[in-house]
Amino acid sequence: MERLSQSLRDAPIIQKGEYEYFVHPISDGVPMLEPELLREIVIGIIRKADLDGVNKIVTPAAMGIHISTAVSLMTDIPLVVIRKRQYGLEGEVSLAQVTGYSENEMYLNDVEPDDRVLLLDDVLSTGGTLHSITSALEEIGADIADIVAVIKKVGGENKMDDHDVKTLINVDVVSGSVVIVDENGDG
């Protein structure tokens, strides 16, 4: 994860209220995402995730899409995107997304009871988004095979303490800079 580590060390920091937010190609699409970085991340996810029997990859819009699309292409596992737009389709499930700096309503389609899913996201910070998604998946009756976030921002509240989340790298923001806490992440 050399490219990922260096790209995080180089990431600019902005303030969103009280929240120190790092700007990164994986979490924001800015600066541009180099193919070499995306490839390194996808290989890391495939090596770390439990893919046994997984029949769907589930990811929230928008910043999980590029990562999950690449994993889907490499594994031939179909991709379900949780959208911020309601479609009113049969079986659609509404969930509230609460992050460290925003609140949104999101909508999940195409997940059935007994589906075995891999949940992917770009960043685990407060755990608000992943917590909402895991609750919705459990309500549907899906089996969550594994949860992987590329980057974990440590040091704050984590609503995912009741679920194991694998990460590729763990970071903190200290004095306006990203500091690598664990180059191997969790799990």
From TrEMBL:
> Keyword annotations for this protein?
Glycosyltransferase, Purine salvage, Transferase
- The Phosphoribosyltransferase domain extends over 53-168
MF GO annotations: glycosyltransferase activity
Q: Which InterPro entries match?
A: HGPRTase-like, PRTase-like, PRTase_dom, Pur/Pyrimidine_PRTase
Enzyme type, top EC level? transferase
Q: Which family does it belong to?
A: Belongs to the purine/pyrimidine phosphoribosyltransferase family. Archaeal HPRT subfamily.
What protein is this chain from? HGPRTase-like protein
Q: Which organism is it from?
A: Halocatena salina
Its lineage reads:
Archaea, Methanobacteriati, Methanobacteriota, Stenosarchaea group, Halobacteria
What gene is this protein translated from? Answer: hpt
